[in-house]
Amino acid sequence: MTPRLNIIRRRARQNPLMVAGILICIAWIFVSIFAKYVAPYDPLEQSIMERLMGPSSAHLFGTDQLGRDVLSRVLYGGRISLPAGLLVVTSAMIIGTIFGAITGYVGGMADELLMRFTEIFMAFPIIILAMAIAAALGPSVRNAVIAMIVVWWPNYARIVRSLVIQVKSNQYVESAQAIGASPLRILFITILPNCVAPALVMATLDIGNAILIFAGLSFLGVGPEPSAAEWGRMVSDGIDHYDQWWLSAFPGIAIFTAVMALNFIGDGLRDLADPRTRKAVG
Q1: In three state form, how does the secondary structure of 60-73 look?
Q2: What digits encode the pLDDT tens for the residues 217-245?
Q3: Percent of the chain clearing pLDDT 70 (strictly above)
């Protein structure tokens, strides 16, 4: 066995939850991509004769109020929820990193204005502000994602700004300034690579939170259209039929497993990125 495989094997033994999270995420990604071949039925196919049927051999997760197969809709739901969470966090991280890096490096009035601007967004609960923006834009997947990006990027701007302020006082940054490097080169080549790791770890943890918030927006009716196979929307549909437990239980379990798996991965990456934690685990 090569040394690299030995390292991977040792890390896996040290953090089994991270391995479990990776396997669950791979399973959801695989199922979402190949839902067309894995799902037993079309998620939009209706059958009035089979409406509100409990779990059975024909429909393992039962059927909903329109006779649609719940298992097929849960499998197709990953095609909306997972990409939405990833898109929100990726876009918010890029926007927040650029703004936070520039203001942290420049300082002065620009820094103060951006921090006061971000505090306006952070003064409201994320779900409330995102719901208000999504309701103003209109219910759709695109508008829900835009609303979440608007309220999400200030977190990354603040953390990257604080890291840039710490790093820019190091000697290697002063050396780059002494040899005549341009401010943009110093910021994006010298400083920013030393600030990205914490933001990436935070992003991994945030993907699960973004999926949860996106499901919350769908649950409140400001996400995808009612016919869409999306986990939050499916949980909302089950409220009117509370005695048919399978309508909300199975999409709720899907949200739970995806979010917990991403949190396991984020916690594992955070431990690996922290030298003190890595040494203690080792």
Answers
A1: CCCECCCCCEHHHH
A2: 888 888 888 778 889 888 888 887 778 88
A3: 92
H helix runs in 60-170, sequence order: 70-106, 108-122, 126-137, 141-167
| Position 169, amino acid | S
Cα 10 to Cα 165: distance, rounded to the nearest angstrom: 36
Q: Name the 3-class secondary structure at 242.
A: coil
Q: How far apart are CA 171 and CA 179, in angstroms?
A: 12
The sign one gets for the Cα dihedral 101, 103, 104, 106 is positive
The Cα angle at residue 243 between residues 241 and 245, in degrees rounded to 5: 90
The one-character DSSP state at 170 is S
Residue whose entry in the numeric block shows the structure tokens 């259209």: 225
Mean pLDDT in residue range 179-192: 79
Q: Provide the CB-side half-sphere exposure for 255 (13 A, CA).
A: 22
Closest CA to 73 of 254, 221, 260, 257: 254
- With contact defined as beta carbons under 8 Å apart, do 161 and 98 qualify? no
DSSP state of 54: P
Q: Is the pLDDT of residue 9 over 70?
A: no
**pTM (predicted TM-score):** 0.84
How far is 281 from 168, CA to CA, in rounded Å? 31
pLDDT at 213 over 60: yes
Residue with tokens 């690996």: 272
**Largest pairwise CA distance in the chain:** 78
Q: Retrieve residue 120's tokens.
A: 């306006």
> Mean pLDDT for the chain?
83
List the beta bridge partners of residue 187. Answer: none
